[in-house]
């Protein structure tokens, strides 16, 4: 499968052994549209019949984050870290403070601004993160235009 080769390459590039656990974790993260917690990931893997312990999940995630294959986001208000595979595609997130729904947003308004900041501060920007907090449609937001 093409995807599996992609993970193998990612791991190989970082000199990581391609353990089946790491591979399964990457596949599960790739399949998930939203960032997930280590616990959710653990349950997903168990549901797929993969025998793995929660501490193995944590350890594998730490390594993948350290190697820049997986992005870790700490949402400040509930002490929970969420993990997301680094995609080619850059994303931002809308986070519902009531039901915890996370909506990925593909558009980024910052490319030009980042360039301005680089120029102004002589700073070489390698990335940024943005989460916006509020209420989703179900939790009291407005109807919106996307229909989902
Ligand atoms: Zn909500
Ligand atoms: Zn952005």
Gist?
With 148 residues, the protein is an alpha+beta fold.
Strand content is 15-25%
Structural class: alpha+beta
Rg from alpha-carbon coordinates: 17 Å
Note the overall shape: globular
* Number of continuous helical runs: 5
Query: CATH superfamily name of the largest domain?
Result: Winged helix-like DNA-binding domain superfamily/Winged helix DNA-binding domain
Helix content: 25-40%
Which small compounds were modeled alongside the protein? zinc ion
Please state the second-level CATH architecture of the largest domain.
Orthogonal Bundle
CATH topology of the largest domain: Arc Repressor Mutant, subunit A
CATH C-level of the largest domain: Mainly Alpha
Structure characterization notes:
The chain is built from five helices and six strands; from the N terminus they run ααβααββββαβ. The protein has 148 residues and is of the alpha+beta class. It folds into two domains: 1-88, Arc Repressor Mutant, subunit A, CATH 1.10.10; 89-148, Ferric-uptake regulator, C-terminal dimerisarion domain (Dna Ligase, domain 1, 2-Layer Sandwich). It has a three-stranded antiparallel beta sheet. It has a three-stranded mixed beta sheet with strand order 5-4-6, with no helix packed on it. It is globular. The mean pLDDT is 84. The protein binds zinc ion (2 copies).
């Amino acid at each position: 499968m093409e995807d599996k080769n992609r993970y193998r390459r990612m791991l190989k590039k970082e000199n990581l052994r391609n353990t089946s656990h790491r591979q399964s974790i990457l596949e599960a993260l790739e399949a998930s549209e939203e960032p997930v917690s280590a616990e959710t990931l653990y349950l997903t893997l168990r549901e797929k019949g993969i025998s793995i312990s929660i501490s193995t999940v944590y350890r594998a995630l730490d390594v993948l984050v350290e190697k820049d294959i997986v992005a870790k986001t700490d949402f400040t208000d509930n002490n929970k870290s969420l993990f997301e595979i680094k995609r080619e595609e850059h994303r931002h997130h809308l986070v519902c403070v009531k039901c915890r729904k996370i909506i990925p947003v593909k558009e980024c308004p910052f490319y030009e601004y980042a360039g301005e900041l680089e120029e102004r501060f002589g700073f070489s920007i390698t990335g940024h993160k943005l989460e916006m907090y509020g209420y989703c449609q179900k939790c009291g937001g407005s109807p919106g235009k996307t229909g989902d």
